[in-house]
Amino acid sequence: MGGFPILSAMTFLPLAGALIIMIVRAATAGSRDETQAGSEGRTALMAGLIISGATFLVSLAAFAYYNPAEPGYQLVEQYRWYQNISYKMGVDGLSIALVLLTTFLTPICLLASWNSINKRVTEYVVAFLVLETFMIGVFTSLDLVLFYIFFEAGLIPMFLIIGIWGGPDKIYAAFKFFLYTLIGSLFMLVAVVYMYQAAGSSDFEVLENYEFARSAQTWLWLAFMASFAVKLPMWPVHTWLPDAHVQAPTAGSVVLAGVLLKMGGYGFLRFSLPMFPDASHLFQPVMFALAVVAIVYTSLVAWRQTDMKKLIAYSSVAHMGFVTLGVFSFNEAGVQGAIFQMLSHGIISGALFLIVGVVYDRMHTREISAYGGLVHRMPIYASLFMLFTMANVGLPGTSGFIGEILTMVGGYQASSWAAFGAALGVIFSAVYMLTLYRRTVFGQITNPKLNAIKDMNRIELICIVPLALLTILFGVAPNLIFNITEGSALRVLNLMAGG
Amino acid sequence: MLDYTAMILAIGPELWLAATALIGVLLGAVLKDKFNALAFKFGALVLFAAAAFSLMNYQGGEAFNGLVRTNTFVNFAKFVSYAIGGVTLLMSEGFLKRHNTIRYEYALLTIFASLGIGMMLSAADLMTLYMGVETLSLSSYVMAAFHRDSIRSSEAGLKYFVLGSLASGMLLYGASLVYGFAGSTEYVAIAAAEPSVGMMFGMVLMIVGLAFKVSAAPMHVWTPDVYEGSPTPVAAFFATAPKMASMVVFANVMYTVFGGVIEQWQLILSIIAALSMIIGSLGALTQTNIKRLLGYSSIANIGYALVAVAAGQEFGAGPLLVFMTLYVIASLGLFAGVLSMRRRGGMVEGVNELGGLMRKRPWLAIALSVLIFSMAGLPPFGGFFGKWEVLNAGLDAGLLPLAVILVLASVVSLGYYLRLIKIMWFDEPTEKFEAIDGSVTFTVIASAVLTGVVFLVFIYQLSGWAGNAAAGLPI
């Protein structure tokens, strides 16, 4: 790489695109009237698609330059910025995988909004592109302060996306989302300042090798946990998630479940484990307990939901419980499984929200009872829905299976009880997902409005089919991912062991 | 042999302000109403020149046998205060014109107030300090009541005057006690004197007086009322130039006069800081008048700044300058935003009047949002680094509880900052604001760009300047 800052280019390309869209809109504001509002929105969406598509290509290029055989950070760019803080970017296997997930999902989100977002479309596209920059930045920054800036900045566009384009209770959901996440991350900020002062640097590599005192580790670990537990989310601070998901527009839910939740797991792997190993060991039983509670409790809650999106939101909390379980099992199977589970859940839950969005756009309700018998009118939809239902349950052959089995294997090595609890969750996930599927897709059409419902159109297929292919591909050939992430998973464990 | 050149250079900006203010008075007497419109350009020019002046002799000097002594720390504050004072003057012209109260006295009062700012910043003696504080205060009382036909404005002026006099009295009494027990009014001599109980009494009274001037809780009650009642440009001035200066004066007094007895006042200032943060952010939650809301938010922000003061000179001086600079620029922009809320010939001040601003004036809404987030200290905007520096200072000095309160207060304050964002972005549009003078819109956007973007990327520059300025303080 001849010094071209490909990661910076990838990170800031969407932001630059957003600025251009805004400026073009301002420049053409004079010649516009109300009747053209629709076509202007389509143009903006098209521009957004091109920009995010280009970002995806750049991220593929970055991936091509990435060498999975090397465990450390690669493609590093570093400039001295402020005090001892650097503008430092770089990726390892864990982050490049999550970056690819982000850049892959964003164009899909924008495309999925093609028909469902009809007001203030230009602003919507701008918000999404800005959000993409912050999401990529979270995964590519190698400096704690820089990471914090991206991590927290992402709240603003997401707040706007929920608040402007959300459902009836959007204001409540947006505030809840923002304040919950903020209170966690501000505690992290205090910890960041402390670490920065103690180690004299906020560089990841310096911090990873700095030995924090045992007593300090406990507090730092808790402060970071406050932030990541909300983000992941873990029981009992998960309650913002169902609200945010239900109120957010479809694409907002996709990106929330697909990427934003992963920041919590990423944070655990990047900070809690390598930087505070003693505290991580100390809190392992607590985390296992919370993970099992999350898996069992939220699965049961999901079962009782009458709103499709809420059901999937709770199922997300349960699946994130597997990530916690895997991360805190401190062995290769668990950590690899957790990373895999994050990626796989990003794809599957994203797809499930899109699936719900498809019928919501037609019927404008997410009540499960309003549906039934969709298979008679929407056969393609029913089969894709089936695939993702099975993937969410963890059927072998889909990517969901690999993540769950590996995290449970890892968890079993650390604590058989935790694995037992998690296995219960697998059963429950079959219960609620199959119930959802049966009630919406099978049976007779009871709601007369459903008689005229149309099967998926081309745009929806373009959005969902790639996700379906990936689900099966990663289910059949999980090594595609493991080869990328193996180095960094082992590196995390080595750092933990003090190596 | 006295070195007159060095002396004049040391108090150059203040001499310049005093001279031009008097010339302004003469011009007003001769030209009468013809001077009214001109006076604002004149005043802004004078203040910008004074800002440049304070940079010319940035290293500082001594004058009048130690009554006045400047250094880079105060000169930094002088520069920011004068420059911002000039901008508020330019912003005010259109507003006063529309209210038929455009009078040259306003510009001259701003100059006199700035003279007070300069004097209290340059002070190296309790007498000079008091003179400066009073010059600023008396000009401010008149400015608050400048709309003399409006009951609210007169009320604001009177309230400010009565409470302000009380605080000045405390400051004076404290100063006299300190003088009595230390045997001198000079900063250096007091710092060298043996601390005694009487002197600590004096110090506490002085803290009370100064806390009133910076509107720190529990001496804050005047702030929302005065901000609400005063004409908006006056409130904009109060919230910026004197805030910056008073805060730096506060720090200067604590650092240079009482620097040796930091263990005596660190707790007091910590409590004041904590109270300000808590009361400010809780108080703002329920406000519906945007000026009152900004008043409470300024109390909270002063609380953050006081964390830096409480951290002591070594840790807090630089961060204080960074935080206050970013804060006053954001504050200036937000008040300029309030100035642009004009509809059917009248000003509106309700928070809800901003409804749907994003649909009607997108750039204004974006600029205001950037300012609000920046003031809330949320990354990626420059204001985040103000908080970052203050947090660093607080933790360096071992004030962990204050840091935690700061963090919690930030969450609470997001409650009202987000409400503003919600009103601007989510709510249905209200009637469009009337077009407003270019200078106001320019100020909003310029300060948004400055705090939001420029000082994000170039924060190391600002921080470096502030660090060097803080290094000029005597140790």
From TrEMBL, chain A:
Chief location: membrane
Domain NADH:quinone oxidoreductase/Mrp antiporter transmembrane: 141-423
Enzyme class at the top of the EC tree: oxidoreductase
Cellular localization per UniProt: Endomembrane system; Membrane
Membrane topology classification: Multi-pass membrane protein
Limits of the NADH:ubiquinone oxidoreductase chain 4 N-terminal domain: 82-135
Protein's GO biological process: ATP synthesis coupled electron transport; electron transport coupled proton transport
Documented EC number(s): 1.6.99.5
Listed name of the protein: NADH:ubiquinone oxidoreductase subunit M
Automatic annotation (TrEMBL), chain B:
Subcellular location: Cell membrane; Endomembrane system; Membrane
Keyword Transmembrane recorded: yes
Transmembrane intervals: 6-31, 38-56, 76-92, 104-123, 158-181, 187-212, 267-286, 293-311, 317-341, 362-385, 397-418, 439-460
GO cellular component terms, A-Z: endomembrane system; plasma membrane
Chief location category: membrane
InterPro entries hit by this protein: NADH-Q_OxRdtase_suN/2, ND/Mrp_TM
Enzyme class: translocase
Domain NADH:quinone oxidoreductase/Mrp antiporter transmembrane span(s) in chain numbering: 123-412
Domain of life: Bacteria
Catalyzed reactions per annotation: a quinone + NADH + 5 H(+)(in) = a quinol + NAD(+) + 4 H(+)(out)
Lipid bilayer topology: Multi-pass membrane protein
Entry's EC annotation: 7.1.1.-
GO BP of this protein: ATP synthesis coupled electron transport
Keywords per UniProt: Cell membrane, Membrane, NAD, Quinone, Translocase, Transmembrane, Transmembrane helix, Transport, Ubiquinone
Lipid biosynthesis found in the keyword field: no
GO MF: NADH dehydrogenase (quinone) (non-electrogenic) activity; NADH dehydrogenase (ubiquinone) activity; quinone binding
Protein family (similarity comment): Belongs to the complex I subunit 2 family.
Subunit structure: NDH-1 is composed of 14 different subunits. Subunits NuoA, H, J, K, L, M, N constitute the membrane sector of the complex.
Family matches, as PANTHER family: NADH DEHYDROGENASE
The protein's role, per its UniProt record: NDH-1 shuttles electrons from NADH, via FMN and iron-sulfur (Fe-S) centers, to quinones in the respiratory chain. The immediate electron acceptor for the enzyme in this species is believed to be ubiquinone. Couples the redox reaction to proton translocation (for every two electrons transferred, four hydrogen ions are translocated across the cytoplasmic membrane), and thus conserves the redox energy in a proton gradient.
Protein name: NADH-quinone oxidoreductase subunit N
Gene: nuoN
